[in-house]
Amino acid sequence: MLADYYLYIKAAHLIAVISWMAAMLYLPRLFVYHVAAEKGSVQSETFKVMERRLLRYIGTPAMLITWILGIMLLSANPEIASDGWIHFKLLLVFLLSGFHGACAGWMKKFARDENTKSQKFFRIANEVPTAMMIVIVILAVLKPF
Fold first, then answer.
1. pTM of this prediction?
2. Measured over all CA atoms, what is the biggest interatomic distance in the chain, rounded to whole angstroms?
């Protein structure tokens, strides 16, 4: 059955990945701006709402859908399970999921006005998902090993 719908599942997987990446690229940028906002200010409270909604309504659902559809694609294509590129890709997706969890933790600290990280930290953190995404796309498209 999965084979009959493989391309639809793949398209939905890509849509979920794009949505997840949008959240993972934007959330650390919001943190950069949030650091500069005075605690308790209207601006700070607005960032808290934006961060929570981005993660709750876009980021986390997109990550879960990405995983579910990715597992379905792998189940429909079990012969790639022994390829080295898929192992490296899955490692990076696990790491990206960990980064997602770290973002959730940072968001909670901001919500409690307990952030101790700097703008520079979040500027650097903002580059992490981009680097992972580049490597993941190259692995998925080129299947180099």
1. 0.94
2. 55
